Amino acid sequence: MRMRTCVSSMAAGSSMEWLKSVKGVILDMCGVLYDSGEGGGQAIHGSIEAVKRLMDSGLIVRFCTNETQNTREKFVQKLRAMGFDISVSHVFSPAPALVRILRERRLRPHLLVHDDLMPEFDDVDTSSPNCVVIGDAADKFSYQNLNEAFRVLIGLEKPLLFSLGQGRYYKETDGLKLDVGVFMKALEYACDVQAEVVGKPSADFFQTVLNDMSLQPHEAVMIGDDLLNDVGGAQRCGMKGIQVRTGKYRPSDEKHPSVRADGYVDDLAAATDAILTNH
Amino acid sequence: MRMRTCVSSMAAGSSMEWLKSVKGVILDMCGVLYDSGEGGGQAIHGSIEAVKRLMDSGLIVRFCTNETQNTREKFVQKLRAMGFDISVSHVFSPAPALVRILRERRLRPHLLVHDDLMPEFDDVDTSSPNCVVIGDAADKFSYQNLNEAFRVLIGLEKPLLFSLGQGRYYKETDGLKLDVGVFMKALEYACDVQAEVVGKPSADFFQTVLNDMSLQPHEAVMIGDDLLNDVGGAQRCGMKGIQVRTGKYRPSDEKHPSVRADGYVDDLAAATDAILTNH
């Protein structure tokens, strides 16, 4: 039945013959594999099986998330508990990518991130900070903490701000929550700087995943529920992008004035059907 | 000695002959009349006498502030205690201006403002809010309060956000503090809206002061320490603008790429000398 729906929406939309040349698949996680919520959330119907089918098909599969409320290890543990057979080394999240950047550029950050993300920075020198890093700190975004980050930033000869993602808001069981991008804009305005975004939709971030897959951009497809950060970001790197109608998807996404996905499908199961049919 | 300094800087800078046609003076308060700090701050040397001389000269004098951490009454009380002979009806601040707008447009605000400003809104209906108002709420800008304001805003059919000023930061005795504009930018990004700014540099706000003075813009001069919000804002309304080298003034202001004051003077006493000499 889902197969039929998928074929029908493919017929109605653009053909996905381009899938023939695809050798690798990058999957967004929240809103594609699972819905967040109480107790960590739950798998989206059919997605556990879909991930398994993609992996068994011989395609190279990687996972790409902007999750910054947890270490990558804890996050993967949660997904494994839901039934997903995922290994930590195949998951790309902003914090480990930022730690590499900090090391390469010999930067010492002032951190305004979620307490549960702190272990990612265990080996990072945070003395005499020469940059500021913000993640989705949620309740830790107090006036005092934000002001402290601002004072570090404005006190630098050349203020340098890193933001782990640039999301506006997300949905939790008790309603909408402000995301890190909102506080990035606040600090950008305060100090008249532009933040360096680490995570989707940064081209560097997608490129790291492609490097790990040993693929050229045109050989990979990104599947996500976020039209701008997943699909648009991947397309700017030369990849194809498919949007699923789960998670934060809204019908208005299909009429977006500047970003158009290479395919719209009902969910990851339908995306997998389309990929394996055309492969 | 100050007189000589003033004449000397006038000679070095542009001539201020245009002051001949000026019938009214609008004074910024913090940074021009007084410096904020512990115990409410202290008068800037010579400013109490300068205000008196301007008033005694027959010029129409009004005061214009973006202060939103206090009611107008409490604020004027503080200035009077410092020695300024100022009456409440001559002081224009954002909150009373906003209350008039809310009444005219029949709006019911969700308020995220300083506790000490709340009495300004005693007569305002805040049930079933159809807009959001933010002021310099300082410590009240917690994640929870900001998220609450965001949820009200995003829940409106047409999100409407008012900001009492748009300052980036200000200086207190214990260091720099984030101002309301930073949180305005945060909510603007979260909801993809543009805030209506009430207070300087809003043209409507300056026009209210001019109406009260019964003057045309070219008949009035604004004196302030903030190049963009005081001088630039007044100039965009057709007024002249003088910047004083006190308060938040920085030498780099005199080389600003887009805003140039009609005169730069050391302080309010020097500005008064120039006005009364040319008048």
UniProtKB/TrEMBL annotation, chains A, B:
Keywords: Cytoplasm, Hydrolase, Magnesium, Metal-binding, Nucleus. It is an enzyme of class 3 (hydrolase). One of its GO terms (molecular function) is metal ion binding. Its main location: cytoplasm. GO terms for cellular component: cytosol; nucleus. Its cofactor is Mg(2+). The keyword Nucleus applies. It catalyses: diphosphate + H2O = 2 phosphate + H(+). InterPro entries: HAD-like_sf (IPR036412), HAD-SF_hydro_IIA (IPR006357), HAD_sf (IPR023214), LHPP/HDHD2 (IPR006355). It comes from the Eukaryota. It is found in: Cytoplasm; Nucleus. Its EC number is 3.6.1.1. Pfam families: Hydrolase_6, Hydrolase_like. Phosphatase that hydrolyzes imidodiphosphate, 3-phosphohistidine and 6-phospholysine. Has broad substrate specificity and can also hydrolyze inorganic diphosphate, but with lower efficiency. PANTHER family: 4-NITROPHENYLPHOSPHATASE-RELATED (PTHR19288), PHOSPHOLYSINE PHOSPHOHISTIDINE INORGANIC PYROPHOSPHATE PHOSPHATASE (PTHR19288:SF44). Belongs to the HAD-like hydrolase superfamily. This is Phospholysine phosphohistidine inorganic pyrophosphate phosphatase. It comes from Culter alburnus (Topmouth culter). The lineage of its organism: Eukaryota, Metazoa, Chordata, Craniata, Vertebrata.
